[in-house]
Amino acid sequence: MIRLRPATPDDLDLLRRWDEQPQVLAADPNDDWGWETELAREPDWREQLIAEADGRPVGFVQIIDPAREDSHYWGEVEDDLRAIDIWIGEPDALGRGYGTQMMRQALARCFAAPEVTAVLVDPLVTNTRSHRFYERFGFVRVARRQFGLDDCYVYRLERAAARSLGLLATPR
């Protein structure tokens, strides 16, 4: 069972190590997350979370409000969206269903805010495994976009699609 907990400065060495793992580099080869600075900040538009399996850290999730985040990575986007970054850091944790559990919990967090209409992800064009992962969750490819040095697809999951796929509780 996966539990998501806030990332803290105590996770610095862990995140630095994960940044060097081949599966993380394949998904995110050009970003410098600036962990030393970012782990010390807690802006209200972002959650940085460590995924733990039975108490052991195995992955990372970041959820942001792309209209409000301070680097303007997503450019001009509509209000009431969220964007997710997700990866498994431990090589021996791959293929165990942890990513699926992490994504389900991340989507539940995103859509817990009633104003959130959709969630965005931006996998590399070359990362076909991640495309299949997101598509299984109902994400739809809506654009191809260059983010810095990275050639990415933008995928979007609408609230209604997430609900119809059983990813969200039906409102009472």
Automatic annotation (TrEMBL):
EC class (word): transferase
BP term (GO), one: response to antibiotic
Keyword vocabulary terms for this entry: Acyltransferase, Antibiotic resistance, Transferase
Domain named N-acetyltransferase: residues: 2-160
Superkingdom of the source species: Bacteria
GO MF annotations, alphabetized: aminoglycoside 6'-N-acetyltransferase activity
Catalytic activity, EC: 2.3.1.82
CDD domains: NAT_SF
Protein name in UniProt: Aminoglycoside 6'-N-acetyltransferase
Native organism: Rehaibacterium terrae
